[in-house]
Design a protein that fits this description.
With 781 residues, this protein is α/β, with parallel strands linked by helices. It has 23 helices and 27 strands. The strands form 7 sheets. Strands 19-20-21-23-22-24-25-26-27 form a 9-stranded mixed beta sheet, with helices on both faces. A 4-stranded antiparallel beta sheet has the order 3-2-5-6, with no helix packed on it. Strands 16-15-14-17 form a 4-stranded mixed beta sheet. Strand 12 and strand 13 form a beta hairpin. The longest helix has 26 residues. It is globular, with a radius of gyration of 35 Å. It starts with a helix and ends in a 5-residue tail after the last helix.
Length: 781
């Protein structure tokens, strides 16, 4: 206490004033927080403000009477004693005046008394607040306190994108809100307001959160509606009007056309179709961001074409009637006849039909499953038979609206097991179509260099295939190849939408990587200071086969914290061989890290190795403006690449700090995006011992040379295995995979080509990967 009083005494008048105002501001913030969380009335806050106002002149007067502000003059007078007589006399006079003033009020206005008074004021405020809580509240006060706490809970749920939980929690606690302003704030957090119109008007409108149950529908009223509240996120709407087909949509906040909906009369010819409201639209699929078109309204199948539907075509002799096969058959660049083409379109027993059928029919119990195993030509022939069309890439994209994937994907069939009956999964697109994500891939009209576009992903594809473009040979008959159809309502821009789509690409064999001297300049951009990690283990969760530690440490840039997941194998003694994992681009579109029991490559941990999984800048909770893994020439993309390399480096720095990790036996595994970025990661950091690159290659878009993987490939020297699918659209064999492997200087290096989609079968991947790691890291003991 004495030391504290002396420090106050030694400060200037202005310093005391500044300290008092700063301390008062902090106290008021604390009082405000208590007010909100305890439900205190507003006058309690005003009372605290009044006490601080009363204390201000007391503190200033004490400062003056105790010599603060004059001390410098007094010290100067003492220092000049013995100097010129006039100056000494003046100083003595001023010092005497100060002593007289202090003696007049010093007995009362002392720092000790001021501090005692301050403590008494705090106790007084606390006593008033506690007294009100105990005796002065009304009968609803406890509920009011719970309501305020509930509001914060709802806010946290919304910030975590758990919109349905937030909405239902708001409904649950809303009766406890007696303050209208707080009630408005609650609904402002959990919902948003919209205007809704329909043609014709008078439709009954219902709403529910996207991932809620059918029994959760709530009536909003009849159209037209103004300023009605709907749940945040991607709320579903149901519109009913007698004599018309009902409308079901999911209202995305950034999507145009869903606030004014048009009913279609009940008509057998359009059964099973949903209306898509047209718009000027851009295509945000990787590599196709340059596409833009205006579309009028059109109809598209609510469900994928099923086996039973396609059976009608087969039974009607569709494979024997050239009328339905209107497109030239071009296979491997050579045109063949219709008769020759029909030999390719046979089922497993040699009968005409999809590749998944036998004896001219689908398997038992599969009538309502989407037809799979059809080529683009078979889908186009069925469309002509049905009097409809294959959707163009533009029509499919706008109806599917992959921007809503955050909501759709968890309710879509990416099970990895088999197709499901159409409509069994509830992942509805904004315009009411089902299974546009997953179940089977869907052929579209448009041609590109690699074949015809087939979109949406299938049941054994990774989820991010919903948000990526894919193209295959029109003869491709993979079991997950299916389709749906559309009906144009207007021919505006229809011919333009049917035109071939050319993707930008580079001829890497016509380029040369930069020289060693230039590369050394590039490498310096990736250097970072060896600063303390300040690592902290935030959580440790045990699962059946591993323990996952969630770790935070200082990133190498911007004062940020880097999150790292470390998976430690069960029943294996440390020190562990460790694989650093760089994932596919799906992590860019997710805003939350996966649960502890999930890991995309579980065989790595089951093999007895640890896995380090950094949360790279722009992914999961570290999301930024980055919206795609496709490289570009922007400065933002360049900075992200440099930050990814530093994230990898800092993660390895952390591994080196642990005694349970064998840091001389580090591996790298990249999948898709992680494989494409591997040249940068491996050329910059020389602590990796071996690497496996799955489903990767060179990206075909240009980027700044200092972050171009092409310039890093010749500098990768660690043993590297590439596992690829030759029909991979993202990384085509001839233009992407082969130049990657050719310029890769790794020694040794090997390439394995396997059948599959973009992601090969996991058992094949596991076998080749573990053989490679055993060879170059050593078998796990």
């Amino acid at each position: 206490m004495k030391k504290l009083l002396q420090e106050i005494h030694d400060r200037s008048l202005w310093q005391v004033l500044g300290l008092y105002l700063a301390g008062g501001w902090v106290l008021l913030q604390l009082v405000d927080v208590l007010n909100q969380n305890l439900g205190l009335p507003r006058w309690v806050f005003v009372f605290a403000l009044a006490l601080l106002a009363i204390g201000l002149p007391i503190v200033l007067l004490t400062a003056m009477l105790q010599g603060v502000g004059w001390r410098a003059g007094e010290d100067e007078a003492e220092d000049t004693a013995g100097g010129p007589t006039s100056s000494s006399a003046t100083a003595s006079t001023e010092a005497a005046s100060g002593r007289a003033a202090r003696s007049a009020g010093g007995g009362l206005f002392t720092w000790r008394n001021a501090m005692i008074a301050g403590g008494a004021a705090v106790l007084l405020w606390g006593g008033v607040a506690v007294g009100w809580l105990m005796f002065g509240r009304g009968p609803d006060a406890a509920a009011g306190i719970d309501a305020v706490a509930g509001l914060e809970e709802v806010r946290e749920l919304v910030e975590a994108d758990r919109f349905s939980e937030a909405y239902f929690r708001a409904r649950e606690i809303e009766p406890a809100f007696t303050d209208d302003s707080l009630r408005q704030e609650l609904w402002g957090v959990a919902t948003r307001t919209v205007d809704l119109k329909s043609a014709p008007p008078g439709a009954e409108v219902w709403t529910r959160p996207y991932d809620s149950a059918e029994e959760d529908w709530e009536l909003l009223g009849r159209t037209p509606l103004q300023d009605v509240r709907i749940p945040r996120g991607l709320p579903r709407l149901r519109l009913e009007l007698e004599g018309y087909r009902s409308i079901r949509v999911a209202m995305h906040g950034y999507m145009r056309g869903l606030d004014s909906l048009t009913f279609d009369p009940k008509n057998p010819s359009t059964d099973g179709l949903v209306r898509v409201t047209g718009s000027d639209m851009d295509v945000f699929l990787p590599g196709l961001e340059h596409l833009h078109i205006g579309l009028p309204d059109y109809l598209i199948d609510k469900m994928e074409v099923t086996n039973s539907h396609f059976k009608r075509f087969v039974d009607a002799g569709g494979y024997a009637d050239p009328e339905y096969w209107e497109h030239a058959f071009v296979r491997d660049g050579v045109e063949i006849t219709w008769v020759e083409a029909m030999e390719f379109f046979r089922d497993q027993t040699g009968q005409p039909g999809p590749s998944t059928w036998s004896v001219g029919s689908y398997p038992n119990g599969m009538a309502d499953h989407p037809v799979g195993g059809v080529s683009w030509y078979e889908a186009a022939a069925y469309a002509r038979f049905a009097g409809r069309e294959l959707p163009t890439l533009y029509h499919w994209y706008w109806a599917a609206y992959p921007h809503a994937g955050q909501f759709m994907l968890p309710l879509s069939n990416f099970s990895g097991e088999a197709s499901a009956p159409v409509g069994e999964y509830d992942g509805m697109s904004p315009f009411g179509a089902l299974d546009m994500a997953g179940n089977v891939r869907e052929w579209t009209w448009n041609e590109t260099e690699a074949g015809r576009f087939i979109l949406g992903g299938g049941w054994n594809d990774p989820e991010y295939m919903f948000t990526d473009a894919n193209a295959q040979s029109p003869f491709n008959r993979d079991p997950i190849n299916g389709f749906r159809l559309m009906v144009p309502l207007d021919t505006t821009n229809l011919a333009l939408a049917h035109e071939p789509i050319i993707s930008p690409h580079r001829d890497y064999f016509a380029e040369q990587p930069v020289s060693d001297d230039i590369f050394e300049v590039y490498r310096r951009l990736y250097a970072y200071d060896d600063t303390p990690l300040n690592a902290e283990i935030l959580a440790s969760e045990e699962t059946e086969h591993w323990t996952r530690e969630e770790i935070e440490l200082d990133a190498a840039y911007g004062g940020e914290r880097l999150r790292l997941f470390l998976y430690l194998p069960a029943d294996v003694e440390p020190p562990y061989q460790t694989i650093v994992y760089f994932p596919g681009s799906g992590v860019i579109y997710r805003d939350r890290s996966p649960p502890a029991e999930y890991f995309a490559m579980p065989f790595l941990i089951r093999s007895g190795r640890a896995v380090a999984f950094p949360v790279f800048k722009g992914t999961y909770e570290r999301g930024t403006e980055l919206s795609s893994d496709i490289q570009d020439e922007s400065n933002s993309y360049r900075e992200h690449v440099i930050q990814w390399s530093k994230d990898l480096g800092r993660s390895i720095d952390y591994l080196e700090s642990r005694s349970d990790i064998s840091t001389d036996l580090l591996g790298y595994m990249g999948f898709s995006w992680g494989s494409a970025m591997a040249p940068v990661m491996l050329a910059v950091d020389d602590r990796i011992t071996a690497s496996v690159l799955l489903s990767g290659g060179l990206v075909l878009q240009p980027t700044q040379p200092e972050v171009d993987p092409f310039n890093f490939l010749p500098r990768v020297t660690v043993p590297t295995l590439m596992i690829n699918v030759p029909t991979d659209y993202f990384y085509p064999l001839e233009t992407s995979q082969w130049p990657f492997f050719s310029y890769l200087e790794a020694a040794p290096k090997d390439s394995v080509l396997v059948e599959g989609g973009h992601k090969p079968p996991m058992n094949v991947v596991a076998r080749h990967t573990l053989e490679w790691l055993d060879r170059y890291l050593g078998e796990v003991k």
